[in-house]
Amino acid sequence: MSGTFSCDVLVVGAGIAGLMAARRLEAAGKTVVVVDREERVGGRIVTEHVAGGWVDTGAQFFTVRDAEFGQFVAEWLAEGLVFVWSTGWSDGSLLPPTNDAYPRYAAREGLTAVPRRLAQDLIIHKAVNIESVMPVAGEWIAVSDSGVAYQCQALILTPPAPLSLALLKAGQVELTATDGAALAAITYAPCITAVCHIDGAVNLPEPGVLQRPDHAISWIADNRRKGTSPDVCLVSLHVNPTYSRLWWLSPEEELVGALRRELRPFLATDATIKEISLHRWPYALPTTLYPHKTLRAVGLPPLAFAGDAFAGPRVEGAALSGLAAAQAILDAIG
Ligand SMILES: Cc1cc2nc3c(=O)[nH]c(=O)nc-3n(C[C@H](O)[C@H](O)[C@H](O)COP(=O)(O)OP(=O)(O)OC[C@H]3O[C@@H](n4cnc5c(N)ncnc54)[C@H](O)[C@@H]3O)c2cc1C
Fold this sequence. Notes:
Layout: E1 4-12, H1 16-27, E2 32-35, E3 47-50, E4 53-56, H2 67-78, E5 83-86, E6 104-106, H3 113-119, E7 124-125, E8 130-136, E9 139-144, E10 149-157, H4 161-170, H5 177-184, E11 187-199, E12 209-211, E13 217-222, H6 223-226, E14 233-239, H7 241-247, H8 252-263, E15 272-288, E16 295-296, E17 303-305, H9 314-333
Parallel strand pairs: 1-2, 1-10, 2-7, 10-17
Antiparallel strand pairs: 3-4, 5-6, 8-9, 9-10, 11-14, 11-15, 12-13, 13-14, 16-17
Helix pairs in contact: 1-3, 1-9
């Protein structure tokens, strides 16, 4: 892709925050372009094809606590896009599973079905890695590493905060001291995840999940029982934040060896681990959040920041943040 594109609002990032923002802006009659450096939409919601099955390799499920997000989810439920996977998980003890009455939603085709649905009818430029953004004559110009340029009245940045700050720095944009400090204070925990291809039986409590936040392997899920991989046994493992930091630079063979040992007690004696594929997420979950759903930059052409680090973590927080950023931009440009 090459050339210069013009739009009312450019949204950087086609994760759930960016897609929600774009839909809200389009519904208000704005011309919107969403760009993402990946070849796909969804960001940290991603479903991958592994050994003949499908598996969610980022977010595993989502919950709903806010009525505004609940309206979207009610539609997705009615369409059969998502289903209630569970209302709690076992921690592996003899205690009953935690049951906080919040349904955990998943999608049979994998969670990526949700961003794909949100992306329908939007203008999305994939595989466009924005390298810098800068204000010019009261508008914004964003430029990709392959030289594609976007000229827009307003800008929404949804990448994790350190990446958004890097785009501004590359464009030599000066935020106010307050905005700069607030964005620099946002932090994230990393997460090492693995997908294990198993030949044989896996023993996990109902509904095929174990969640133990204090254990090195904090999440173990059988995707055959989840329904995304009915024919192939794929088990997802997540390493908790403490061990993800500790093991971050470990060579792949060492990590695979450690994960094999951790997984073994949950497999039938005659089961074999055929393959383990790893993924390292540097910005998996926000740990220090900005206290509001969006940050509208002061002293610059209309610019709003959104994502899961803005007032509510995880899929729901990101979605609500995207909606709030869209509203902030509509308030600014009318
Ligand atoms: C392993 C893992 C497990 C998780 N489990 C859960 C869970 O079970 N439940 C839950 O609710 N949440 C979970 N989460 C968190 C959830 O996935 C996120 O909170 C949510 O998806 C964040 O959405 P977002 O739109 O804010 O950011 P992202 O999804 O990260 O979207 C940002 C987008 O910006 C793009 N981008 C970045 N830089 C550029 C650039 N320079 N140019 C163009 N595009 C760019 C990225 O490619 C990305 O698509 C998990 C996350 C991880 C990593």
